[in-house]
Amino acid sequence: MKISDAKVFVGGPGKNYVTLKIMTDQGVYGLGDATLNNRETLPAAYLQDYLIPNLIGMDPRNSEDIWQFFYRGAYFRRGPISMAAFGAIDMALWDIKGKLANMPLYQLFGGKSRDGAMVYAHSTGVDLPDLMDSVESYVEQGYKAVRVQCGIPGMPTASYAVPEEKNAGGDYITDFSGIRPKTEIWDTDRYMRFMPGALAEIRDRFGPDLKILHDVHHRLLPREAAELAKAVEPVGLYWLEDPTPAEDQDAIRLIRQHSTTPLAIGEVFNSIWECNKLIENELIDFIRIAVTYAGGITHAKRVVDLAGQHHVRTGFHGAPSHSPISMAAQHHLNAWAPNFGIQEYLVLGTPECDALFPSEHKMRDGLFYVSEAPGLGVDFDETEAKRYEYKPGSHPVVRLEDGTLWNY
Ligand SMILES: [Mg+2]
């Protein structure tokens, strides 16, 4: 059996999904997602210029050797662009493997550890009452967990994942359009004064059962993060996410020394080498890697297995930049992983997205159920894909009020 061809598509409804389709000489094909948000053309070029020419003629069943060929075979290893490109190939090869076995992917990992896997939604508000309305709407829909992000009184601009106008609530997705980034202004003092009380009010309003998550998005210094993690202990957060920039992992130790608030880290990590010490030293509670830019299923599964030995649960990244293909890969891992925690989940199920990526996967009452279709259980409609083209975008940049550049 041989890989006969592979194609890359860039585009989609509202997002520049990078979709890889690998064809074989036996007619079975596999799909992968190489979307790297706001840098989408780069993994696409890596695939087209370097990886696909090497893939042609390889046996698609040897997914491990192909992964090693691209990882060890590249002198300059790791990094989000190359790992996203390898990740798409790896997903597509697992998709082919599942189709050949006529089994849904989770069966190849070891079967199901649960039927429905818990997901969390994004709640957001310009202020606390607006945020409460958003949380309420998710609770009414049966969600068991929500991530809460709130406008900060006195902050000169909307901060991370917060809309500029009321009632954006459940449908709000940050606008990344335009190649030149928008600027957000950040003030740590205002945030630190406001956020612990706001989280406490959300807990009071919704009671003890709702799982509440909050994303600091790398904005704090280590000492400030320790202060926040300690201050919110009475709230009983499900997790506090990315309190400090991911490069300095010793910062996590400082936070850990001062607080028992669970920590979720790692959505920007690309390999096991960026999180193995955090996991082995049991400094985090949830690992946030994504199948997309952590080298696909083969590599992500190694991280999950290591995490499982150290009481660290999964909480895969699930921002809207992940296409239904990589989300399906994560949902299959979630169905299997003995150390599954939770899955970040945004409803991408617009008619346009469903038409481009048809599947029978279902979310119901805050739990995700994978379909029994062979492989990833997601298809890709190439005719629909012709409707879309690449649109440049950029993440905002963050500055302090005096103009100093800060962490987005
Ligand atoms: Mg995050």
TrEMBL record:
What the entry lists under Pfam families is as follows: MR_MLE_C, MR_MLE_N
Q: Which GO terms describe its biological process?
A: amino acid catabolic process; carbohydrate catabolic process
Q: Supply the InterPro entries for this chain.
A: D-mannonate_dehydratase-like (IPR034589), DgoD-like (IPR034593), Enolase-like_C_sf (IPR036849), Enolase-like_N (IPR029017), Enolase_C-like (IPR029065), Mandel_Rmase/mucon_lact_enz_CS (IPR018110), Mandelate_racemase_C (IPR013342), Mandelate_racemase_N_dom (IPR013341)
Domain of life here?
Bacteria
Ligase among keywords: no
Q: Keywords on this record?
A: Magnesium, Metal-binding
Q: What residue stretches are annotated with the Mandelate racemase/muconate lactonizing enzyme C-terminal domain?
A: 129-262
What molecular functions are annotated in GO for this chain? magnesium ion binding; mannonate dehydratase activity
What protein family does this chain belong to? Belongs to the mandelate racemase/muconate lactonizing enzyme family. GalD subfamily.
NCBIfam families hit by this protein:
ManoateDhtManD (NF043051), PRK15072.1 (NF011654)
Name of the protein this chain belongs to: D-mannonate dehydratase
Q: Which organism is it from?
A: Litoreibacter ascidiaceicola
